[in-house]
What we know:
Layout: H1 11-18, E1 23-25, E2 28-30, E3 37-42, E4 47-53, H2 57-72, H3 81-97, H4 99-110, H5 114-135, E5 143-145, E6 156-164, E7 167-171, H6 177-190, E8 194-198, H7 205-217, E9 224-226, H8 231-239, E10 246-250, H9 253-265, E11 269-273, E12 278-282, H10 288-300, E13 310-316, H11 320-333, H12 352-367, E14 371-374, E15 378-379, E16 385-386, E17 389-392, H13 399-402, E18 409-415, H14 418-426, E19 430-431, E20 433-437, H15 441-447, E21 455-458, E22 473-474, E23 477-478, H16 485-490, E24 491-499
Parallel strand pairs: 7-8, 7-10, 8-9, 10-11, 12-13, 12-20, 13-18, 17-18, 20-21
Antiparallel strand pairs: 1-2, 3-4, 5-6, 6-24, 11-23, 14-17, 15-16, 19-22
Helix pairs in contact: 2-8, 3-5, 3-7, 4-5, 4-7, 5-6, 10-11
This protein binds adenosine-5'-diphosphate (ADP).
Adenosine-5'-diphosphate binds at residues 171-173, 198, 200-201, 231-232, 235-236, 239, 251-252, 255, 258-259.
Amino acid sequence: MTLYPDQLISPATRAFLARPKRMLIGAEWSAAVSGETLAVLDPATGQAFATVPAGGAADIDRAVAAARRAFESGEWPKMRPVDRERLLLKFADLIEANAQELAEIEALDNGKPVMMARHVDVALVVDFLRYMAGWATKIEGSTMDVSVPLMRDRELFGFTRREPVGVVGAIIPWNFPLLMAAWKVGPALTSGCTMVLKPAEETPLTALRFAELALEAGYPAGVLNVVTGHGDTAGAALASHKGIEKVAFTGSTEIGKLVGKAAIDNMTRVSLELGGKSPVIVLDDADPAMAAAGAAQAIFFNQGQVCTAGSRLFIHKSRFEKVVEGLSGIAASMKLGPGIDPSTQIGPLVSAVQQQRVLGYIESGLAEGARAATGGGAGGEAGYFVKPTVLVNAHDAMKVVREEIFGPVVVAMPYEDLDEVAHRANDTPYGLAASIWSNDLTRVHRLIPKIKAGTVWVNCHNILDNAMPFGGYKQSGIGREMGRAVLDMYTESKSVIMAL
Ligand code: ADP
């Protein structure tokens, strides 16, 4: 970290980076049983700046055992809901108090602009944990009048209870490391579960700081365990572990299917939040400048490494040139740089692998006849940068239109009428999100039910709210996160019938 001027990295972040990195298993900070480690690279330079344990199956076993002990004995299972609420609020307060440090670690680890990390990622984490804390005291069942034919002369009483599902294994991706951790940790801890969290190998650092703050907040040992390590070892061991009751996964559809199969073999409850190829649909009444700015935000936010990224831009043919011109102008003007520099608008992609994948997609689009209106290649001298790219001259069968790119690359295509665009927008295996740009309420309302996606935005994109369920149709996943709906994913329903 000697590359960056002192003022860009606060003393708290430097102190965190200087501490040896250990996994949290039970009450202990420990190395991997194998002694193996993995290097954490700065995506803006490609240089290693931290080392974390490379946990494996043996470490997952230890962490699951610690989570099991905490779930079944000690103070956690006896803790009153109001005390779980208080604890989660305290955890949120600590994250807020350390927001700048967490944002800097996230920016260094993932490459994302530090201002975004602070005012989007960390801000959303704090709000979400506070929102989830309130649910601890509001998890409820119902009472029923029971009718049983053969017991006419007995008085019967029925009710349901919701109980914490048990030990949760959470596997999260590298694009929003802290936020994706919070989306799992919030509902697990508010509903009384215990958990083992495995961050992505590319971005393990904020999860470790998160774990320190959880201990500081006062969570009993074993309630939250963090195992760093690779996906095909630690991740696979967690997904297939017989000692857990639920797997919560966010990541690619390809790995999500493996995780889902491993979970179903043990009948482990599973929620999957997977990939997307979200359409942005600009109607003929939309203001071209507003649509261009919206489309830029939809695809370039977080370097396009967003499962809801608006990567297919359908523009009514009457607006096509204007919107593409506006979008390309914005793309060309965005400042590339390291995430830790507050003036950066587009950071590097997370890894060399991701950069090569995205560049490969751009090349395939160009080879199939698309043209880059702007961008179209790598950026910067070192690090994993890709220039914000707008592809035109594309058609629906191209790989760049069909597959998730997960980078700052949008394909803009004209359309003529609403039925046509609804059909083309749905012509994808994914169904995570979509946005519609128009002030024509009637046509917008007609389009919304036709779009097969878990979230539809109107005149905005990538806007999330804690109270709104989030998840995918089709191959974008199973289950919902956030909102009241997430509680169903972390609790079991128990029906009780009493003969009085
Ligand atoms: P991406 O393609 O965006 O890197 P992945 O789906 O590969 O996303 O990774 C998301 C998370 O899944 C990461 O924490 C990763 O370590 C983990 N993972 C990768 N492979 C496996 C696997 N075979 N089993 C379980 N988890 C895995």
